[in-house]
Amino acid sequence: KKLSDEHETVDRNKRFCKVHICDALEFVRDCSPDAYDFVVLDVYTAGRFPQALLIDSFFLHLRQVLKPNGALAINSGFGVDESSVKAMVESAFGSSSSTVFLDENAVKEADREYENA
Predict the structure, then answer these.
(1) CA distance linking residue 85 with residue 76, whole number of Å
(2) Binning pLDDT at 50, 70 and 90, where does residue 43 land?
């Protein structure tokens, strides 16, 4: 079954939310500034955070799409990936009013049975 690019749903508190399944770099680059209150970045797959996203411009665009005092949650991975993501977040969000949540409780070793760690 093919997933569509955008899903609309209602959370358990009856609030409307949209889920976008797309190229993350293109999405944040093309997105309007101050568009979102909360962004979940879950691109960590196959035991790695995509190297194509470990660039300053991606994290600066993420900062721009968040509304003032918005929040970003990131599945940052572990080891080298976690350190790189943390460095990018600190650089892009250091003076921001946004809150960033990193998955600091990520498993320390990839789960071989599943693609995601």
Answers:
(1) 6
(2) confident
Q: Are 36 and 67 in contact (CB under 8 A)?
A: yes
Task: Convert the pLDDT of each residue in 100-112 to its tens digit.
Answer: 888 755 444 444 3
pLDDT at 116: 45
Report d(CA 48, CA 81) in Å as an integer: 7
CA neighbor of 82 nearest in space, from 104, 65, 99, 56: 104
